[in-house]
User: Fold these one by one.
Assistant:
Number 1:
Amino acid sequence: MIVLGIETSCDETAAAVVEDGKKVRSSVVSSQVDIHRKFGGVVPELASRAHLDLLCPVIEESFHRAGLSILDIDGIAVTAGPGLVGALLVGTSTAKAICFSLKKPLIAINHIEAHLYANFIDEEPVLPAIGLIVSGGHTDMVYVSGINEYKVLGRTRDDAVGEAFDKVAKMLGLGYPGGPAIERAAQKGDAGKITFPRPYLPGSFDFSFSGLKTAVLYHIKKHGCKDVEDIAAGFQAAVVDVLVRKVLMAAEDEGVGSILLGGGVARNTVLRKALEEGAFKTGIGFFCPPPALCTDNAVMIAGLGFVKLERGERSSLSLNVCSNWVLGSPLPPLIRGEQGGMGGCRVERDSC
Ligand code: KG4
Ligand code: ZN
C-alpha cells in the first residue's frame, strides 16, 4: 500500500511517500526556520502562508523522488492536530482535495502519536513500553501497550521541553531554534559549574519547566551572560536529569520492556545517551528514531496512516482540525455552528 503523508502542524512543510508503513520511498521537509528566525519563534500567520506556498511543490517533489505519480497512491494520511490551526488547515484541505478528486481514502493523524510511531518504522520495539514525546509543543509520558493503545501518565503543566530550550537559547542570545544551539554551546561548557533546580514534582508523572527557565533568567540577571556555555550545560543537565529520572521511575512502576523516545528534543545526544544508559542499567530496551525522524517529518504520518488504513480506519472529508487534540482521544467532529461550521475558527473558540 502506497501512502502519501502530509505534515503541516507547525513550521515544517513535509510530504513523504511510504510503502507498507515502513519502506520510505521519499521524504521531503521544507523548513521555515529562516522565515521565523528574526522573530525568535514561530509566527502562526506566517507559517500558514508559507505552508500555502510550499505544500504543493513539496508534494510534487516527494513523488518525483519516489519515482511515482500521484495516481499510484492508495491513500493519504494527514496531521489534523495538535498544532497551529491555520497551518493544520492548509495540510488537511490539500489532503481532502486530493482524496476527493482521486477517490482515495483519507486518514487523520495525531501528531504526537506519529512521533511515537516513528520508533516502529525501522524497529520492532518491545511492548509494553514507556513512551516519552519531547518536542517544541509537547512533553507527554505515555504507557504504550500497542500502536493505538496508549494511557497518558503525565504531561507538562506549563512549558514543553523544546519550548524551554528555545526560550533559554533566546535569553542567552544563541538564536532560533534553540535546542540545537543549546546542545552545541553545552558541549563547550561545564555542567557542574552552575546547578539549576530539578523540578521533579514528586508523586506525579507530570513535568514543569517554567520554574527552571525562570531560574536561568534570574541567574543571567544576577551574573550576566558571560558564562553562556556553562549556563547552557547546567540547564541541559537539569532537563535531562528530570526526564531520565521520571521515565525510569515510570518504567519500573509499570514493569515495561522498553523506553521509546520521540519528538524534536529526542535529537539531543545527551538525553539519548542518558536514557539509553538508564534503560541498560534497568535491563530494558531503549528505542529512538534516527535524528531526521525525531523532528517534524511526514514519514511518521504516512507510516502511522498505513497502520490505520490497513485496519480499515477512515476519516471523513469533512474532518476537523484540532489545535489541542489529546493523544488517545478521538478527533472531535466538525461542529456545524451558526456560521456554517468553520472548523478551525470554531475549534479555537471552543478549544476543542
Ligand atoms: O518535534 P519538533 O520538530 O516540532 C514540534 O512538534 O514541536 O520539535 C522541535 C523542537 C524545538 O523546540 C527544538 O528546539 C527542539 O525540538 N530540538 C532540540 C534539539 N533539536 C531540536 N532540543 C534539544 N536538543 C536538540 N539537539
Ligand atoms: Zn513534532
Note: Residues 111, 115, 135, 263-264, 296 surround zinc ion (ligand 2) (CB under 6 Å).
Number 2:
Amino acid sequence: MSNLQNIVSQFNIEGRFKSALPFGSGHINDTYLITTSPDDARDYVLQRINHAIFRNVPELISNIVKVTRHLKQRLLCKDADLDWFHVIAMIQTRSGEYFLHDPLGNYWRMYDFVPGSRSYDVVENRELSCEAGRAFGIFHHLTSDMNAGSLFETLPDFHHIGSRLEAFRGKVRTDPAGRVAGVAGEIAFAELRAEEMHAILRLAQQGRIPLRVTHNDTKFNNVLFNTDNRAIAVVDLDTVMPGYLLYDFGDAIRTGANTGAEDEADLSKVQIDLGLFEAYASGYLEITGDFLTREEFDHLAFSAKYMTYLIGLRFLTDHIDGDRYFKTAFPGHNLQRARTQFRLLETMERDFGTMQEIIRSIRI
Ligand code: GN1
Ligand code: MG
C-alpha cells in the first residue's frame, strides 16, 4: 500500500481509494485530489500541513472547526437565503479527529471535494471577480457575529507591517544567500514605501478598526466556482484567525483584479484592472455594506496597495533568504513574484485616485 493510500485509509471516507494526484497551486502545503471507487463515491482533497510553518496544528484545526460550525449554523437560518453557498466539510479520522498525526511526524487532513467545482489562478472576467467579492463578503458577513478572540492566532503578526519589515531588514543585513547585491533596486523600492505602509497598523493600534474573524489568504484561487461560474465556497481556512477586514479585501484585489498571474514574468501584462476592481468591490460591498465601518470603507482602496506591497516584500525576503519559505518551481521564482507584485503596486499608485473614486461611487 502506498503511503498516501495508507494515510487515506485512516480517514472515514466513502468508497475505496483509487488514486492520488497533486492538486491546486498552494505554496505551503502538499495537496492531493483523492479519487475513489466506485465512480459515484465521493472524491476528496487530502493535505499534508506544512508544520514547519504551522507550528500548532491542533489549534489551527480547532479554528477551522469553530469557524465552519459557525458558518453552517448561520447558513441554516432561513433568513440567510444563501442556499448555493457551501461550507466544505472536513473528514474525520476513524478515531474521530479532524487531523491525522502520522508516525513520521506529518500532519494530514481531508476535505470533501465538491463535484464539478473549480478555481482559477487568473481572473478571466468581471463576473468572476464580482462573484469572488460576494464569496468573501459572505464569509465576513456570516462570521461578523463571532468573537474573534475565541480563535487562536495561528501565525502571529501574519500581516503586521512592523514584523515583516523587521524580518526583511534582518535578511538584508545578514545576506544569508549572497543575493542582496543583485536586488538593490527592489530593496530601494520597498524602503521608499515602508513608512506609508504603516497606515492600517496605525488604525488598528488606535482602535479605529475592529478586530474580526478574517480569512487571511483571500487569493482568487481560494474561491470555488461551480459549472455556471457562480462562487460557491471559499477554501483554505488554515489562516483563519483574528485580523483586520482590510487585509482580506486588499489581498483579494492583489489577485482578483490583476490582469496577470501572481508570477507573470512579462511585466507589461501586469496591472490593476479597474473594471475587475470595481466588479470585486461591488460584489463584496453588496454583502458587507451594512456592517463595514466608515474607517474600513475609507481604506479599502489603500488596502489593495498595502497587501500587494506586503506579499511582494515577503517574496523578496524569501528570495534574499535563499527560498526557504514559499515553494518555488525554478531558480529566481520568488524574485519574479516580488517583481510582479511591485509592478502591480506601481500601477495601483498610478490609478489610486480612480480606485478611491470607484469605492466612493459604489452605493452601500
Ligand atoms: C501562501 O500556500 P498558499 O498559496 O495558500 C501564503 C500566503 C500568501 C500566498 C501568496 C501560510 O498561500 O500568505 O499570500 O502564498 N500562506 C502562508 O501566493 O504563508
Ligand atoms: Mg493558503
Note: Strands lie at 16-22, 30-37, 44-49, 90-91, 100-101, 107-112, 212-214, 223-225, 231-234, 241-243.
